[in-house]
Amino acid sequence: MAKGKKAKVKNKKKKNKNGLGLVAFLKSVWKELKKVNWPSRKELIQHTGVVIVSIAIVAIVVWIMDLGLSSILNMILG
């Protein structure tokens, strides 16, 4: 029984070497992509705006912290 399982594994490996495994993988990926619920154009623009605003806020906070820490460091090192 164990030999039969090993033979099946070897056959699968041979298919992968020939590229048949890749074709099957790409077909399954394409099927899954058809199932995806893609956002509408309006939703995509809204979500992109939220991401850009969030990045800007984080950048401003980091910039303010950098200014504060650098001024403290300049006062210490003088």
Summarize the structure in words.
This protein has 78 residues and is mainly α. It folds into two domains: 1-36; 38-78. The chain is 90% helix and 0% strand. It contains three helices and no strands. The chain has helices at residues 2-18, 20-35, 41-77. It is elongated, with a radius of gyration of 27 Å.
Task: Spell out the key features of this protein.
single chain, 78 residues, mainly alpha, 2 domains, 3 helices, 90% helix, elongated, transmembrane helix, translocation
Unreliable stretches (pLDDT < 50, length at least 5) are none
- The average pLDDT score comes to 86
Q: What is the string of helix and strand elements?
A: HHH
Task: Tell me the overall shape.
Answer: elongated
> What is the total number of structural domains?
2
As a percent range, the share of strand residues is under 5%
Number of β-strand runs: 0
Helical amount: over 70%
Query: What's the end-to-end separation, in Å?
Result: 79 Å
Question: If helices are DSSP runs of H or I spanning 4 or more residues, what is the number of helices?
Answer: 3
**Could you give a short account of the major beta sheet?**
none
Pfam families: SecE
Main location: membrane
Subcellular location: Cell membrane; Membrane
Protein name: Protein translocase subunit SecE
